[in-house]
Design brief:
Length: 90
């Protein structure tokens, strides 16, 4: 994945925290998605267009994780979100 591309939300969503998860409803498709805590953090950070590297750098400050491992995880989540049409390049 290109680490210099900025990503942003695509579509219309509503969301809510439910216990340790974050659930969003894609208003356009009527599908809903549940995120774990770390995916929820990634989603929150993409409220502002950011690169995967930017997101990983912010998460490394919050979690005890190696920077490259974090970047791989962020890229995986962003790829999944993109495949579902939830985010797109800014």
């Amino acid at each position: 994945m290109n680490t210099t591309a900025k990503w942003r939300y695509s579509g219309s969503f509503v969301g809510a925290k439910i216990e340790d998860s974050f659930v969003i409803l894609d208003v356009d498709s009527a599908y809903y998605y549940a995120f774990n805590v770390s995916a929820s953090d990634i989603w929150d950070l993409l409220a502002t267009p950011r690169t995967c590297r930017d997101v990983a750098d912010l998460l490394v400050q919050k979690y005890e994780v190696a920077p490259e491992e974090c970047l791989r995880s962020v890229e995986g989540v962003v790829a999944e979100l993109s495949a579902k049409g939830l985010v797109s390049p800014a």
